[in-house]
Amino acid sequence: MPSFSYKLKESEGKTLIHDVIRRKWLVLTPEEWVRQHMVHFLHNFLGFPLSLMNVERGTTYNKLQKRTDICVYSSAGTPLLLIECKAPDVRITNNTVQQAAVYNQTIKASYLLVTNGIHHFCWRVASDGVSLEPLQELPTFEQINLH
Q1: Secondary structure of residue 137 in the 3-state scheme
Q2: pTM summary value
Q3: Distance CA 70, CA 60 (A)
Q4: How far apart are CA 47 and CA 29, in angstroms?
Q5: Number of Cβ atoms within 10 Å of the Cβ of 40
C-alpha cells in the first residue's frame, strides 16, 4: 500500500500511532499498522469520507461480542464495506474470509474486504446476503455508494 502521513510517538517504551477516526493514540501493532494504512488508502485514493468510517466497532454475533476492524457507511448510515485486517505475517485463508463473512451476516454490508496489508481480497455480497462475488479491484466510494 502507498505510504501516508502518520503521527507516531513513544510512551512508556511503546510506539503509538494516532488514529484519525477514533482521534486517539494506539499501540502500533502490525495489525494496527495495516488498519491505519487501509483507512488512509480508502480516504486518499478511493474517496471514502473519514466521517463515514468506523474502526473497531463492537457488534454482537450469536450473543458473542465481536469487533469489526473497519466498516464504511453510506450517507444514510447503511453499511457499505466491511474490512477485516490482519498483520502482514498472517496468511489470508478461507478461515479468515469466513470470519469476515460471519461478521457480515449481522452487519449486512454490500462489500467485504480482507487484507493483511500485502494481499487484498474484495467481494460484492450477492443479493442472498451470503454468496460472495470476487472483484478484481477495490471499488471507489462513488462506485459502491451507487449500489
Answers
A1: coil
A2: 0.89
A3: 15
A4: 26
A5: 18
CATH number for the domain including 42? 3.90.1570.30
In degrees rounded to 5, what are phi and psi of residue 26?
Answer: -130, 150
Query: What's the total number of domains in the chain?
Result: 1
pLDDT above 60 for 60: no
Q: How confident is the model over 87-96, as pLDDT tens digits?
A: 999 999 999 8
**18: pLDDT strictly greater than 90:** yes
Query: Residue 40: which H helix or E strand, with range?
Result: helix 30-46
Q: Which three cell numbers stand for residue 125?
A: 455480497
What span, in angstroms and rounded, lies between the C-alpha atoms of 104 and 59? Answer: 10
- The C-alpha cell 462475488 sits at 133
Is 23 within a domain? no
Cell numbers given for 22: 477514533
Residues 63-68, mean pLDDT to the nearest whole number: 66
